[in-house]
């Protein structure tokens, strides 16, 4: 069985690496309370006013920055390492938050949003890759969920302090602290063993494995050999963008890409970025409702993380899509009634909050965490940096477009039409998962790679290593 210190180091490293993910969440959630404050010109306390149209860009531009950051992440991971990228990237949001906190005009506001967004893209790719590489196969899924749990916690933190201070400047000052804490804490852990071996640092890689598996870990030699074989094979098959679009890399790339796109087209970024708008329509307290929704997000993510290695990725994605489809349809029904049968909708003003809570539970159960888990585990070493960067860049690009166009879609399709549209995408995600997603629960990185390369019967060595790891880890 696992010895506590060995498992503890892996859990602790995942937590320390994901303090930066809390910083990502604070950037994502910042737009809702800050936008509500900046668009309110009814008080003398507001020293900077922006229009509703400007607020749409203010809310969305961090996602555009994140998309660019994901492309930069590929280069950073290669030259600075996984741990190094997490360490050095904290400089970026510090600059962005300083601009936001001190901004005297709209131009500096949106510049700060783009710069902080760069960090979102770099960190999410770096953290998911780092955790996917150092964690043991039997807890890799659980550790992979930490990224989104901490993102949700950052969103909650921003909502709470946004309500307390009612100032986008004070709120931003608190958010700026999180990446700095992450950069300090990550100094106390080891670099990914896979990255170290790929750079010829075998002694450091062995020390890294001992750090994450324990000093007496009996399969160090076997795992070192498996990692070296994997690296050697990847060097023989050195890949470029064209190779990414060919077998055997195309299948895992398309799976992650589709799941990432579904993560956005099921409406999460649009809902989170516009909670104040959603709850303003039925005349509920936007601050209170947003905080309740964020608390549910964090709590349900914590609960659902314990099922990742028990239920598996595939079944949780199916359940997640089904729950979101129902809850978004509920929101669609409410806004339809509000537009065409106002007297009836007045008797169920509680429905949007209930629907959002159910939606967030469903999102947290699968699509909130599992696409990032899969991003960290299913790519072959020769394409991992490139494929991860491109996949994440596309998902943040989708988030940018959806957040920016959310109000436009509402004007075109009416609010109820938008939520019915998102509900339809959730239904599509269920069918896609049923037919196309491979279950990676309990699989080593080599076993997953063998499956997608059509080499499942490669040898019994990987299976033996997996068994040994579970016995001693």
Automatic annotation (TrEMBL):
<dbReference type="Pfam" id="PF00083">
    <property type="entry name" value="Sugar_tr"/>
</dbReference>
<feature type="transmembrane region" description="Helical">
    <location>
        <begin position="114"/>
        <end position="134"/>
    </location>
</feature>
<feature type="transmembrane region" description="Helical">
    <location>
        <begin position="387"/>
        <end position="406"/>
    </location>
</feature>
<keyword id="KW-0472">Membrane</keyword>
<feature type="transmembrane region" description="Helical">
    <location>
        <begin position="291"/>
        <end position="308"/>
    </location>
</feature>
<comment type="similarity">
    <text>Belongs to the major facilitator superfamily. Sugar transporter (TC 2.A.1.1) family. Trehalose transporter subfamily.</text>
</comment>
<dbReference type="InterPro" id="IPR020846">
    <property type="entry name" value="MFS_dom"/>
</dbReference>
<feature type="transmembrane region" description="Helical">
    <location>
        <begin position="350"/>
        <end position="375"/>
    </location>
</feature>
<feature type="transmembrane region" description="Helical">
    <location>
        <begin position="141"/>
        <end position="162"/>
    </location>
</feature>
<feature type="domain" description="Major facilitator superfamily (MFS) profile">
    <location>
        <begin position="13"/>
        <end position="441"/>
    </location>
</feature>
<keyword id="KW-0175">Coiled coil</keyword>
<feature type="transmembrane region" description="Helical">
    <location>
        <begin position="418"/>
        <end position="438"/>
    </location>
</feature>
<protein>
    <submittedName>
        <fullName>Facilitated trehalose transporter Tret1</fullName>
    </submittedName>
</protein>
<feature type="transmembrane region" description="Helical">
    <location>
        <begin position="315"/>
        <end position="338"/>
    </location>
</feature>
<dbReference type="InterPro" id="IPR005829">
    <property type="entry name" value="Sugar_transporter_CS"/>
</dbReference>
<keyword id="KW-1133">Transmembrane helix</keyword>
<dbReference type="InterPro" id="IPR003663">
    <property type="entry name" value="Sugar/inositol_transpt"/>
</dbReference>
<keyword id="KW-1003">Cell membrane</keyword>
<dbReference type="GO" id="GO:0005886">
    <property type="term" value="C:plasma membrane"/>
</dbReference>
<feature type="transmembrane region" description="Helical">
    <location>
        <begin position="255"/>
        <end position="279"/>
    </location>
</feature>
<feature type="transmembrane region" description="Helical">
    <location>
        <begin position="87"/>
        <end position="108"/>
    </location>
</feature>
<feature type="transmembrane region" description="Helical">
    <location>
        <begin position="57"/>
        <end position="80"/>
    </location>
</feature>
<dbReference type="InterPro" id="IPR005828">
    <property type="entry name" value="MFS_sugar_transport-like"/>
</dbReference>
<feature type="transmembrane region" description="Helical">
    <location>
        <begin position="12"/>
        <end position="37"/>
    </location>
</feature>
<keyword id="KW-0812">Transmembrane</keyword>
<feature type="coiled-coil region">
    <location>
        <begin position="217"/>
        <end position="244"/>
    </location>
</feature>
<dbReference type="InterPro" id="IPR050549">
    <property type="entry name" value="MFS_Trehalose_Transporter"/>
</dbReference>
<dbReference type="InterPro" id="IPR036259">
    <property type="entry name" value="MFS_trans_sf"/>
</dbReference>
<dbReference type="GO" id="GO:0022857">
    <property type="term" value="F:transmembrane transporter activity"/>
</dbReference>
<keyword id="KW-0325">Glycoprotein</keyword>
<feature type="transmembrane region" description="Helical">
    <location>
        <begin position="168"/>
        <end position="189"/>
    </location>
</feature>
